[in-house]
Amino acid sequence: MRLTAVIAMMGLISVGCSASSETPGSTTTLVPDTTTTRAPSNEICLSGDLPFGPDGLIAALGDDEGDATSVSQIRWDPSGTCERLTVAFGSVSDAPATTLGPSAVSVISYAGIVRAGLPAEVEASAVADTLVEGSLVSSVFVVRDQDGFMFIDIHGADEIPIQARAFTTTSPATLVIDITRADTTATPVGVTKSGSVVIISPTPGPAPYPTVVDGYVEPGLLAVRVQVIESDNAVVDRSVSVDGYHDTWQSFTSMIEEGPLGTAVLFVGTLDGNEKPLDGAFVSITME
Hints:
Blueprint: E1 34-37, E2 56-61, E3 70-79, E4 82-90, E5 103-108, E6 113-117, E7 124-125, E8 129-131, E9 137-144, E10 150-156, E11 162-169, E12 174-181, E13 192-193, E14 197-201, E15 205-207, E16 211-217, E17 223-230, E18 233-241, E19 249-256, E20 262-271, E21 277-287
Parallel strand pairs: 1-3, 3-7, 9-19, 15-21
Antiparallel strand pairs: 2-5, 3-4, 4-12, 5-6, 6-10, 8-9, 9-10, 11-12, 13-14, 14-16, 16-19, 17-18, 17-20, 20-21
């Protein structure tokens, strides 16, 4: 998995914490195609009255039409008890985009994920993933779903419940997502991942039939194997095709309608020449 965090010098874009935090007429420069981080500052993402949401859809935002066609940069800013992700976009002319089209941001609380669905016009990305390792955010993945639409998954730190809020700016177009700890005693199950695979469901534990296996795989793969392994034997074994995109991770879904009962291991990944698991992720499940 190409998890990288590249520190780059860039012109700073000043934004506030409300949906109206735009700077009309501000001077902009070409945004580098990279991911950057910044040293902690004073609670930049707790000011203003925009509420945080702990689960489900938290923001439907963006303009009816936008000129954003690519993800050009993802920047992480730690700030005391909160962390901010700022996504910058490019236009078809390779200049910074001025507006972002219809978008939606949700929190998948059981998995500890904040997901940003991007407009259909956003068709490319200069960033596939980045390792953050903050106190609230661990990593970020840019993903294409099975219909080719792109979304960004922000993974929370292990066992930390998170909540989020989001807003956009124009000229330049950015999507800003603020994350803080949720006021709950519930602990997210999280996801299972390796260097090449992220499994969102099922989670470890009971898995009743039919079971949906879904997640995403690294850029460049054309297919992934989904197996249910019992006593070192693959009692369920299927190949799931993906599209081979090289600039983003790729979603997959597989439905397991029937199989063994009891304790088993779910494997998603690639196999070696002996048809044994080579590279991927394993989840301990109890099939019911």
